[in-house]
Write a structure and sequence with these properties.
Elements: H1 2-18, E1 26-29, E2 40-41, E3 45-49, E4 56-67, E5 74-78, E6 81-89, E7 92-93, E8 99-107, E9 112-119, E10 123-131, E11 138-147, E12 151-160, E13 166-177, E14 180-190, E15 197-206, E16 221-226, E17 229-238, E18 243-254, H2 261-274, H3 277-291, E19 295-299, H4 302-317, H5 343-356, H6 358-369, H7 372-381, H8 406-410, H9 413-429, H10 432-453, E20 455-456, E21 462-463, H11 481-500, H12 507-513, H13 555-565, H14 576-587, H15 591-600, E22 606-607, E23 612-613, H16 625-639, E24 642-645, E25 648-651, E26 662-668, E27 673-677
Antiparallel strand pairs: 1-8, 2-3, 3-4, 4-5, 6-7, 6-12, 8-9, 9-10, 10-11, 11-18, 12-17, 13-14, 14-15, 15-18, 16-17, 19-26, 20-21, 22-23, 24-25, 26-27
Length: 678
């Protein structure tokens, strides 16, 4: 039944795409059936527009957590709906049943999401959502109503607060300074378990009216249904051919980032209110223009271009270089996985960002070093030395995995994954000061952890016992291939880092790294763990020893491992496994197999109408930023031939699938190099 559903979804998706605008920067739909939206985000908040007229599905607040329940773990906050808008024309509230020529377009270049439609024979309406990159706690909706005949328009803008918030206080005030008046709608409430105070403020902006002129500004009426739902409205009569151009702007702040979120949210709204629209939006567009200096251009395959750029768009949208925050598996698109931070960041999303944007990459690694003390405490608590990172991390840096999940107690490779990301940051940037202050202290603590974590065998080798590996179908095993391989890599990188800062490395680091066991079958195929006997796997594990770890690198064994483990991947597993296989095949020079696996790594996971990625072919939880990271790594490190080395980013043996005319990778590394493959 799942297979039939998947085929039917693919057919519907293809039909929708036929009517869509097809270029490398825009994705357009005219169909609301089987609809999965695309988020606009700025690294601090994510706004998910819906197919409903002026509708917002949800708002996600980055790094703002409260307990999910009294006995639960932390969960990222779903913000108040601070963009609750409605439009009425001639007394009829507009919904989808009364419009025609409806369409939506995601503009990835400018990070905007536009909807347009006709309302009967009376008006044309267009509105565009922004999560402002330049004002990161604020959103903006630019709206135009063009009359086809004389009409009366009523617009409502409000704040809706879900019932999980406590003690909301909803107000409408007109603030004044000299001749300027500033109408502010606001709700202040406690988060679900009372950890945070959250404040949302909003107001209308009329672009063609002087903000201080009381005589021409439309009168606002405050309508308060309850403390959980209130709005301000205005009316305007339009003659035939007239237009009404206005905006709604709103901001949302919390005690996670501000001592006084109530006043701060008002200040952001006032800033947007009194900044000319052209300047405000141009600053947002310019910041995205700067991000897109790091880009991937595919010639000859518009669909692949669109898919790849959508993945990169999401990684840029979910992070920012000035935050020292990380990216959850679903970014700022949903509360899935409680918005926690996993290995998904370091192994999957981080490498493409390190290629293109070292500021964002630095934010991701600094997120970990800011929580080093908590990792050191965790190591002590479990009887180890050094630093031991949680499998799921939140704002605190403590373990945030639900207690019932064995991953939280036993999936230890995350600690090595952090070390790998740290050394790669130094390899690319050569930032000696960062290495001295943050990089080496982290790598040293992680190496000390692995020294204390291994067990010495009678033959002088070392094992790592009782772990959950990347393949989470096999809990509590000994010598998981990826766990052991990542520990080897972390220990070696710590020695290199010590030398780079002119410190003497602990000789045990390399001695142990040289003797950690990697098990093999009699024919030389790498075993996933000491007792592995051919069971199906959730995702790539052994093959990670080839890429990105470069521990298994002789072509014969690499190919054996590929042939053995690809058929064992479970359909319900996440997308990244096939992306790893694709990278490896590309590096072996097999473009045909690489392209097949590249497509298989994400196409079954696409959801209409925009191509949002779910975690697996059988799930529906987009947007899965981890999957985007895997797809992008196939392009960059597989077809593009890019490698992280001690000399920085270099290119070796790029290869192009026959379906593409050329591949251009722009803005690579600190030098912003361009690589083109024809």
């Amino acid at each position: 039944m799942k297979k039939i559903f998947s085929i039917l979804s693919s057919v519907i998706f293809c039909v929708q795409l036929l009517s869509a605008q097809q270029d490398g920067w825009h994705i357009t739909t005219k169909d609301t059936s089987n609809y999965t939206g695309i988020v606009v985000a700025n690294g601090r908040l994510g706004i998910l527009p819906s197919s409903k007229i002026l509708g917002v599905e949800q708002v996600i607040l980055n790094n703002v957590y409260d307990k999910a329940s009294s006995l639960g773990v932390s969960k990222i906050l779903k913000g108040m709906d601070f963009m609750s808008l409605s439009l009425t024309i001639d007394g009829e509230k507009i919904d989808h049943s009364s419009v025609s020529n409806w369409s939506q377009t995601l503009n990835m270049k400018e990070a905007s999401f536009s909807t347009s439609f006709d309302f009967k024979d009376k008006a044309e309406v267009t509105y565009t959502f922004y999560a402002l990159r330049n004002v990161p706690y604020a959103g903006y909706v630019d709206i135009q109503v063009r009359s086809k005949k004389a009409i009366e328009v009523e617009v409502s803008g409000g704040i809706k607060t879900s019932m999980e918030y406590q003690d909301p206080m909803s107000t409408f005030r007109i603030l004044r300074d000299a001749e300027v008046t500033m109408p502010i709608l606001q709700t202040v409430a406690k988060s679900r378990m009372g950890k945070h105070t959250v404040a949302a403020s909003g107001t209308f902006i009329w672009h063609d009216i002087n903000s201080g002129d009381e005589h021409v500004r439309p009168a606002l009426t405050h309508v308060k249904t309850s403390e959980y739902n209130h709005a301000i409205t205005f009316q305007r009569k339009l003659k035939k051919g007239e237009s009404l151009d206005f905006a709604w702007t709103a901001a949302q702040t919390t005690t996670q980032d501000f001592e006084d979120p109530q006043n701060e949210s008002e200040r952001f709204v006032i800033f947007n209110l009194l900044t000319p629209k052209k300047d405000l939006l141009q600053d947002h567009i310019n910041l995205w223009k700067e991000l897109w200096k790091g880009d991937i251009v595919i010639e000859g395959d518009v669909q692949s271009q669109q898919d790849v750029r959508l993945g990169l768009y999401h990684l840029y949208a979910f992070a920012r270089g000035d935050s020292n925050l990380s990216i959850a598996p679903m970014g700022l698109s949903s509360q899935n996985y409680n918005g926690h931070i996993f290995w998904d960041t370091e192994l999957w999303m981080y490498p493409p960002l390190l290629i293109f944007n070292q500021d964002i990459a630095r934010s991701l690694v600094n997120y970990r070093s800011d929580r080093l003390d908590k990792a050191k405490q965790k190591a002590i608590n479990f009887g180890y030395k050094g630093a031991m990172f949680p499998w799921e991390s939140d704002d605190t840096g403590e373990e945030a995995t639900p207690a019932w999940a064995l991953t939280g107690t036993f999936e230890h490779h995350i600690t090595a994954d952090v070390a790998i990301a740290f050394w790669n940051y130094y390899r690319v940037t050569k930032d000696k000061k960062w290495l001295e202050e943050r990089g080496y202290p982290m790598l040293k603590e992680i190496a000390d952890y692995w020294v204390s974590r291994v067990s010495k065998n009678s033959d002088g080798s070392y094992s790592i016992k009782n772990v959950v590996g990347a393949n989470e179908f096999a809990p509590n095993v000994t010598d998981n291939a990826f766990t052991n391989g990542s520990a080897i890599t972390a220990l070696r990188y710590a020695s290199l880092a010590a030398e780079a800062v002119e410190q003497k490395p602990d000789p045990e680091w390399n001695q142990i790294a040289d003797r950690i066991k990697i098990h093999r079958f009699p024919d030389g195929t790498t075993m996933e763990h000491a007792e592995y006997d051919g069971e199906r796997i959730k995702q790539a594990d052994v093959n990670l020893l080839t890429f990105p770890l470069d521990i298994v690198n002789d072509p014969e064994t690499v190919l054996k491992d590929l042939n053995y483990y690809e058929p064992k991947l479970a359909a319900e597993g996440p997308a990244m496994g096939k992306a790893i296989f694709a990278v490896i095949y590309a590096r072996l020079g097999n473009a045909k197999e690489a392209y097949r696996l590249f497509k298989e790594s994400y196409e079954p996971n696409k959801r209409p109408p925009f191509g949002a990625l779910a975690e697996a072919a059988t799930s529906n939880n987009p947007y899965f930023a981890t999957g985007a990271g895997g797809m992008l790594q196939t392009v960059l490190f597989g077809f593009g031939g890019l490698h992280f080395t001690e000399e920085g980013i270099i290119q070796k043996n790029p290869i192009l699938p026959k379906q593409w005319k050329s591949l251009t990778i722009k803005g690579v590394g600190p030098e912003k190099k361009t690589y083109r493959i024809d």
